[in-house]
């Protein structure tokens, strides 16, 4: 039987489940469960010398607070640490994940040349213009983080069709293979409810919202990239410098997706 952790005080007016929750929270933040399986309910019952109901209440609160994930037939585990990205810069998701100490990778779902009249129009091109289309499931430490879809004119980016995007970014390959480095752009962030297929890919519960980002990347003022990225909202966040309020633009209305 595991040794009791010693954090529960039955003379304390705080409920036992809240004491267990607080102690497990401290242990998670200290990294005690990094790289190991999170203990099961029976282990925690013995460790804290409390009832299974008490442990379940503590775990429920920890899931609600975003420190744990799982349940409903899936093993409980420590939630992936949130990745934060500062707005106002043309960032690479691969670099953002790597910079915060996580291991980025991608599952390439589609990489092909295709025509898309809607996207071409957004880029100011003829509807029949060939585009390089790349769709990836982006991961952080092996866990789903985002679904990323990007279109770039084939005239500019045809060499990308031979590139390996498992462990690199579009921008790195665009510069290395095509000699192109984007100079700016704009993006818009919205909250959406993903489709059932997207929820399955991201490992989200039905009805869970996500962050939806639309980006137009530019090369010396000319739009050359159209990107749609769907982020897990519990693993990715945007931060904004509020020193200059004139930089903030708020829009409302309109469809959630193009």
Verbal overview:
The protein has 258 residues and is an alpha+beta fold. It has helices at 16-29, 41-48, 52-64, 93-99, 117-122, 154-157, 170-178, 196-202, and strands at residues 68-71, 74-78, 83-86, 104-115, 130-140, 143-153, 184-192, 210-219, 222-232, 236-239. It has a six-stranded antiparallel beta sheet with strand order 4-5-6-9-8-7. Helix 1 packs across helix 3 and helix 2 (41-48) packs across helix 3. Mean pLDDT is 84; it is low at 248-258.
What is the topology?
Layout: H1 16-29, H2 41-48, H3 52-64, E1 68-71, E2 74-78, E3 83-86, H4 93-99, E4 104-115, H5 117-122, E5 130-140, E6 143-153, H6 154-157, H7 170-178, E7 184-192, H8 196-202, E8 210-219, E9 222-232, E10 236-239
Parallel strand pairs: 3-10
Antiparallel strand pairs: 1-2, 4-5, 5-6, 6-9, 7-8, 8-9
What's a quick, concise take on this entry?
The model is unreliable at 248-258 (pLDDT under 50).
Provide the residue-averaged pLDDT: 84
The termini sit apart by 57 Å
Shape: elongated
Q: How many DSSP H or I helices? A: 8
Task: Find the count of extended strands (DSSP E, 2+ residues).
Answer: 10
Taking pLDDT < 50 over at least 5 consecutive residues as the criterion, the unreliable ranges are 248-258
Query: How big is the Rg?
Result: 22 Å
**What strand line-up does the widest sheet have?**
4-5-6-9-8-7
Q: How would you sum up the major sheet?
A: 6 strands, antiparallel
The sequence of SSEs as H and E is: HHHEEEHEHEEHHEHEEE
- Structural class from helices and strands? alpha+beta
Helix % is 25-40%
Strand proportion, as a percent range, falls in 25-35%
């Amino acid at each position: 039987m595991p040794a009791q952790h010693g954090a529960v005080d039955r003379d304390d007016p705080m409920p036992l489940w809240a004491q267990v929750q607080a102690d497990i929270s401290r242990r998670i933040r200290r990294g005690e469960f990094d790289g190991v399986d999170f203990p099961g309910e029976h282990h925690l019952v013995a460790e804290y010398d409390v009832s299974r109901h008490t442990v379940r209440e503590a775990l429920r609160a920890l899931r609600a607070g975003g420190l744990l994930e799982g349940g409903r037939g899936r093993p409980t585990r420590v939630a992936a640490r949130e990745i934060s990205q500062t707005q106002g810069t043309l960032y690479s998701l691969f670099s953002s994940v790597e910079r915060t100490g996580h291991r980025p990778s991608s599952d390439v779902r589609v990489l092909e040349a295709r025509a898309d009249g809607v996207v071409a129009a957004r880029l100011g091109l003829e509807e029949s213009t060939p585009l390089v289309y790349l769709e990836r499931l982006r991961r952080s430490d092996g866990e789903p983080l985002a679904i990323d879809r990007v279109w770039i004119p084939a005239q500019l980016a045809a060499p990308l069709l031979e590139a390996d995007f498992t462990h690199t970014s579009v921008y790195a390959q665009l510069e290395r293979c095509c000699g192109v480095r984007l100079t700016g752009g704009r993006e818009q962030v919205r909250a959406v409810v993903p489709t059932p297929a997207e929820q399955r890919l991201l490992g989200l519960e039905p009805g869970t919202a996500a962050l939806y980002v639309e980006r137009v990347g530019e090369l010396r003022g000319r739009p050359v990239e159209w990107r749609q990225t769907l982020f897990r909202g519990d693993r990715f966040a945007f931060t904004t410098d509020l020193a200059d309020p004139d930089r903030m633009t708020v829009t409302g209305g309109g469809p959630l997706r193009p």
